[in-house]
Write a sequence for this structure.
């Protein structure tokens, strides 16, 4: 697979190791997802809890989908400023799996909420600090993946919509929308195999290419169609 992009990501080097010019990934719609941008989005997605909603949650689920491969992460906010906005975090990989019954995507990265019936099983002490226990999360991986596979979750925010300000002022302000996050700077790259990402992208474009290829020529007569399928019009069918 050939990648077209002036920017680069942590899996790009594999296009030179596995050259295949029949597939092309036009990634010019990309932007670098930095820790600062991640913190900004986490701030928007963050929720209050507790009596009078005085406390902010410090953990959220992050779902990455490439083609039909999924990765689920737990984000832990470790620092915040005086306005309770996140300034740093850590990411842990919970699990990865494939599901070919769901619609495929190039690269989707979202903060999600699992259904409450699932989440309540994952808290270490949900009445006290709403903290997830990683061991408990991994013990209940099947329950979590089944919930996601059956769409038993909600999206909070997406990293596939990012606006870059290029200059100008007021009505002349120049805004550019970007939709493909590059993952090398946000903390995800160290948790997943670049080859898994590259192969999932190749699979996506291969499936997309196959889906638009015709299996039969256009404009053939019935006699020509019979020949294309390996039959002979004189010997393969009974006459009257």
């Amino acid at each position: 697979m050939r990648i077209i992009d002036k920017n680069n990501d942590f899996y790009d080097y594999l296009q030179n190791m596995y050259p295949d010019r029949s597939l092309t990934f036009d990634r010019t719609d990309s932007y670098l997802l930095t820790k600062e941008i991640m913190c900004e989005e986490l701030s928007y997605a963050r929720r209050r809890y507790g009596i009078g909603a005085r406390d902010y949650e410090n953990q959220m689920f992050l779902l990455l989908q490439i083609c039909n491969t999924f990765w689920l992460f737990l984000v832990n906010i470790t620092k915040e400023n005086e306005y309770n906005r996140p300034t740093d975090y850590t990411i842990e990989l919970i699990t990865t799996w494939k599901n070919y019954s769901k619609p495929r995507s190039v690269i989707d990265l979202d903060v999600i909420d699992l259904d409450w019936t699932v989440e309540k099983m994952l808290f270490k002490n949900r009445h006290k600090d709403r903290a997830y226990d990683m061991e408990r999360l991994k013990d209940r991986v099947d329950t979590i993946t089944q919930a996601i596979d059956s769409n038993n979750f909600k999206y909070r925010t997406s990293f596939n919509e990012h606006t870059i300000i290029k200059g100008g002022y007021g009505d002349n302000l120049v805004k550019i929308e970007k939709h493909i996050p590059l993952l090398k700077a946000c903390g995800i790259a160290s948790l997943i195999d670049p080859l898994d990402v590259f192969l999932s992208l190749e699979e996506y474009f291969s499936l997309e290419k196959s889906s638009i290829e015709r299996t039969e020529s256009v404009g053939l007569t019935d006699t020509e169609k019979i020949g294309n399928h390996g039959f002979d019009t004189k010997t393969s069918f009974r006459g009257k």
